[in-house]
Amino acid sequence: MSDRKNTKQYIRSLIIIYNNMTLSSNNFKALVQQTAGFDTNYHWPMSIEKGIQAMMQQLKLSDPQTLYQKLVQSPDLLYDFIQQFTINETYFNREPMLLETVASNLVPELLIESQHEKHINVLSAGCSTGEEPYSIAIAMIERYGDGCWKMFDFYAIDIDIEAIMTATQGIYNSRSVHMLDQRILQTHFYPINNSHYQLKKDIRNQVNFYRMPLQKVKHFFTVPQMDIIFYRNVSIYFDPQTRQSIFNHLSDILRPGGYLIMSPTETFAHDFKRLALIEKQGFFVFQNKKQPTESLFAHQPIVNESQKKSLLQCKSLNHVVELASRKRYEFALNQLDEYMNDNDDLQAHVLKACILINQYQLSQVRAICQEIHQKDRLNEAAFLLLGQVDRLENQLKKAQFNFSQVLNINPQNWLAHYFLAKIYEDFSDRHHAIDAYKAVIKLINIGKFTAHGLLFFPLSFTMSDIMFLCQKRLEMLE
Ligand SMILES: C[S@@+](CC[C@H](N)C(=O)[O-])C[C@H]1O[C@@H](n2cnc3c(N)ncnc32)[C@H](O)[C@@H]1O
Questions:
Q1: How confident is the model at residue 300 (pLDDT cuts 50, 70, 90)?
Q2: 127 C-alpha to ligand 1 centroid (Å)
């Protein structure tokens, strides 16, 4: 009898749950759709009822109403609920040619175009288990070498916390890595067993993962700070309204000149005229076009082609100078080599020697200066650098000769006077040392501090330091 009673009670409770479920499953669905923006045609990878059941079990809840209330009250719980229905399909190197275009075309362009030295900030929006942001990071290290991390910051966001956790562990099965070639696999991954690989820590450490719905992205990155946004294979699941609003949010956090990259099937549906749709090496991408006033040529009246070229040359060399002043020597030299492949420009050779002398690559500096002198016998900067190399190698007579050559070409080069003064002191030639220090003070007083003939010459002292130094030396010598 009691067994029958129990069974009846059990069936009754099942009916109540069933009724509640059928009553509320549409509400749950609407809640997910509203929050995640899934389209009505969305292909749910799991039924909403199954998702409700799983969540109720996990939270040890006996009725869906309580679950619904909890979901409405706690965004984190709601994201946990939603992530049961997300589609995480992804793998490494999904579009190799696109990555190549980003690394070889977009990144250099962004660096050259930037008004000031900066990091390139890259965001993977809807990063799933991390294959996309890591593929971008691998493409950068392959293109720019070990030192490139200083140049990039990688961010990756997804609503799915489990996907994010997988991403931070960086362990992938062979399907995930099937598009990577063996060399990349061997260089950047450790094999864990026959079918699993772990991405090496140095690359894992580069990507900052965040759990967040894309609807909130603008609150997190409050200013336009992204240079490249990958937003691929995510919007296909959204309703038209959500598509437009997320696209707007992402556009808002894009720096002027920055790129937003979607998959080919998504791109044309997002041409809301908010960003310019342009073609790069066969790929259609969105770009946040700069205001015309910020353009390089905006303030030029009419610029002919050769003037344009020299302006661009000047701008990219300035960029290298900026990188070098931040002690990013390796990157500066890479950029410079690329520039020199396309331009036969003596200033670029001088700049290279200036950077190399800071790295104490004296024989290379000497070789470059000799090359410069073959093309331009009276190149002031090359004599100055040669004098420096001689001095560093303690060949003072040769150094004296080279600094004197500088002054034959440009008597106003205070740096040459200064180095000569030091050499005269070493030679105990008091009179010449005094004359040379006086020349330095005079030249700086008449505003020649920057007239030392070098594009890049990091001085560890200021103009007033050098004046003070010279005056002190004069007091000692006179
Ligand atoms: C198919 S994967 C795409 C992964 C990667 N972008 C790629 O192309 O390989 C879609 C990802 O978007 C995430 N997603 C869906 N809706 C989201 C939302 N509203 N906010 C953040 N991420 C979302 C899903 O969790 C899923 O991991």
A1: very low
A2: 6
Helix/strand number for the chain, H first, E second: 22, 10
For ligand 1, is residue 128 a contact (CB within 6 Å)?
A: yes
Q: What pLDDT is stored for residue 315 in this prediction? A: 54
Q: Which atom of ligand 1 is nearest to the CA of 36?
A: 19
pLDDT band at 208 (very low <50, low <70, confident <90, very high): very high
Residue to probe by mutation, ligand 1, list 128, 180, 250, most atoms within 8 Å of CB? 128
pLDDT digits (tens, 9 = 90+) for 388-407: 889 888 899 999 999 999 99
Distance of alpha carbon 284 from alpha carbon 230, whole angstroms: 13
CATH number of the domain bearing residue 254: 3.40.50.150
198 CB near ligand 1 (under 6 Å): no
Kindly give the distance from the C-alpha atom of residue 187 to the centroid of ligand 1, in angstroms, as a whole number: 28
Tokens matching residue 61: 């809840």
129 touches ligand 1 (CB under 6 Å): no
Return the higher-pLDDT residue of 318 and 210: 210
Statement to judge: residues 408 and 347 lie in one domain: yes
Q: Does ligand 1 have an atom closer than 6 angstroms to the CB of 24?
A: no
* ipTM tops the 0.90 cut: yes
**376 and 339 housed in the same domain:** yes
Same domain, 154 and 78: no
For residues 282 and 411, state if they share a domain: no
Q: Is the CB of 88 under 6 A from ligand 1?
A: yes
pLDDT tens digits, one per residue of 64-75: 999 998 998 888
DSSP secondary structure string for all residues of 194-250: SSEEEE-HHHHTTEEEEE--GGGHHHHS-S--EEEEE--SSGGGB-HHHHHHHHHHH
Atom 27 in ligand 1: residue holding the nearest Cα = 128
pLDDT tens string 93-102: 999 999 999 9
Nearest protein CA to atom 11 of ligand 1, as residue: 126
Question: What DSSP letter does each residue of 157-181 carry, written as one string?
Answer: EES-HHHHHHHHHTEEETTTTTTS-
Q: Do both 276 and 400 map to the same domain?
A: no
Nearest atom within ligand 1 for CA of residue 160:
25
Q: Per residue in 264-276, is it b (16+ CB within 10 Å) or e — as a string? A: eebbeebeeebbe
Confidence (pLDDT) at 38: 86
If asked whether residues 277 and 320 sit together in one domain, one would say no
Final residue before a domain boundary, out of 85, 117, 143? 85
CA of 43 relative to ligand 1 center, distance in Å: 14
